[in-house]
Amino acid sequence: MRYWNLQRGFSLIEMITTVSVLAVVTAVAVPSFVNANKTAMVESKATQLLTILEVGQSESMKQHSNIYVHYVPADADSDGCIGLSHKSNVAEFNCALNEGLQKFVIENSGKVTIQEPSSATAERLFYFSPKTGLPSLDKTVKLAFGTDAGKESGVLIRRYSGIKGCSNTTVTGWEACS
Q1: Which of 12, 103, 125, 158 is most solvent-facing, going by the fewest CB within 10 Å?
Q2: pTM for this structure?
């Protein structure tokens, strides 16, 4: 007569080994996932900003007028913005007012922040010429997650070549932000 070993389930050693391997894999994967999520958020916002500026560029030629780009930094009480406007004076520009032109909202929560320009006061960045659609001067607008330096994405604004995306991360086809 034969006796079969009717042991079912896993031994304690097998369970400890499996949980240990799972813990090591998780410890390695989670920081990479968090960094990838932060990078994707910054790149998405940079793409939104680039799109808004491209709209401003085309609107200046379509409407045969200067389209000004103003920067209003976020503070503890309100969100900031980078917005398109017909008004040349930044003091007359308000993020809350709707002129029929688009705005890029900078939330005061501080997740994605403007690294450059680093001004604490509102300023006119540049304007788009109605004849050529090109910006009036060279600027770089850099976005980052919080205060992460070196992982910026943004927009290169060049007087003679127009606007294009830039990234110090992994965006394919974009130049490095300088």
Answers
A1: 12
A2: 0.81
Residue 131 DSSP label: T
Residues 158/133, Cβ–Cβ less than 8 Å:
no
Q: Record the tokens describing residue 36, joined without a space.
A: 């990838």
Residue pair 40/153 in contact by the 8 Å Cβ criterion: no
Q: Which two tokens stand for residue 143?
A: 């976005």
Fold entry, domain 14-167 = minor pseudopilin epsh fold (3.55.40)
Domain borders along the chain are 14-167
pLDDT per residue over 130-158, tens digit each?
Answer: 998 899 999 988 888 877 777 888 898 89
The torsion region of residue 34 among left (phi > 0), alpha (psi -120 to 50) and beta comes to: alpha
3-state class (DSSP) for residue 44: helix
